[in-house]
Amino acid sequence: MANWTTTSIPEQTGRTVLITGANSGLGLRSAHALASRGARVLLACRDADKGRAALQEVAAHATTEPELVELDLADLSSVQRAADDVRDRTGDRLDVLMNNAGVMAPPLGRTADGFEQQIGVNHLAHAALTWRLMPALRARPGARVITLSSIAHRGGGFDLDDLNFEQRRYSPSRAYSQSKLANLLFALELDRRARAAGLDLRSIAAHPGLSTTELAMNTLRSRSAPGVLNTLARPFLSLIGQPPEQGALPQLYAATAPDAESGAYYGPDRLGETRGHPAPAAITAAGKDPRTAERLWELTEKLTGVPADPA
């Protein structure tokens, strides 16, 4: 694993990969890397124009033609349509699902289904997508589900009785931390349930450290930050963070490395997991709690109305 880079990715010809949020940042960099190694990459994007631009960019590096999938994670009906589309066009065969897309610390907003935006997009929609795609994942030996968490999962504010901030005072950072902890809990619970069901499936979590993607810039824009702050933010983020090509390495390692373990969590190996090459990442006590993970799994099934798989 030492100094693992994209040149370490094994040949991916014959494998099909779906990446959410693939039009920019970590998702786009992951699409580039996997397509260049022969994978059939499906780019799941909300914005059609950005998606088409990303598709052309990835196609320039691809040995197998990439494809665009329309997906709005803020709408569970879109999640269902996207899952049906993927299952249909792949013949119910999917090797890797990379739950990459996310929103970070916006003002309070609600999804089409009434969920707080961050828990709705980052966790609930990805869980629903994963469960709806399980038949396609079951059909492929050694299929993998990669779920992106964050070092922000270490923050406070997780409340299973008020995931949607209907009773608590809303805090953008607390809501983001909650959603990233939910991502980690979900990934580890999926691993436990897949093992118990005897499935040949790896569920792995990863995080990018501090990476200079559009996520932070979108946060500033969503909060109507002054123009001068927007101007200064990008060079500052570039100074303290690492480029998205580097930030994507942990999730690419989880998706492709033969020795990537199910139930593991990978992140950068230096400076408090903020930058570097893939390595095992630290998980808080809350992230390791199987009872909390089980309760979240059951609550997620109830809120989304999607049958959990494995049950």
Mind sketching the topology for me?
Layout (H helix, E strand, L loop, with lengths): L15 E5 L4 H12 L3 E6 L2 H12 L7 E4 L5 H15 L5 E4 L17 H22 L4 E6 L23 H25 L4 E6 L7 H9 L4 H14 L3 H4 L1 H8 L8 E6 L4 E6 L4 H4 L1 H15 L7
Parallel strand pairs: 1-2, 1-4, 2-3, 4-5, 5-6, 6-7
Antiparallel strand pairs: 7-8
Helix pairs in contact: 1-2, 3-4, 4-5, 4-11, 5-11, 6-7
Description of the structure:
- By secondary structure, this protein is an alpha/beta fold.
- Helices cover 45% and strands 14% of the residues.
- The protein contains eleven helices and eight strands.
- Strands 3-2-1-4-5-6-7-8 form an eight-stranded mixed β-sheet, sandwiched between helices.
- The longest helix has 25 residues.
- It starts with 15 loop residues before the first strand and ends in a 7-residue tail after the last helix.
- About 6% of the residues have low confidence.
Helix and strand element order: EHEHEHEHEHEHHHHEEHH
What percentage of amino acids are in beta strands?
5-15%
Using the alpha-carbon principal axes, give the shape.
globular
Structural class by SSE content = alpha/beta
Rounded radius of gyration (Å): 18 Å
Number of helices: 11
Give the biggest beta sheet. Answer: 8 strands, mixed
Whole-number mean pLDDT: 92
Helix content: 40-55%
The tally of strands reads 8
Instruction: Quote the distance from N terminus to C terminus.
Output: 34 Å
Poorly predicted ranges: 217-236
> What strand line-up does the widest sheet have?
3-2-1-4-5-6-7-8
Question: Which features would summarize this protein structure in a list?
Answer:
311 residues, alpha/beta, eight-stranded mixed beta sheet, 11 helices, 45% helix, globular
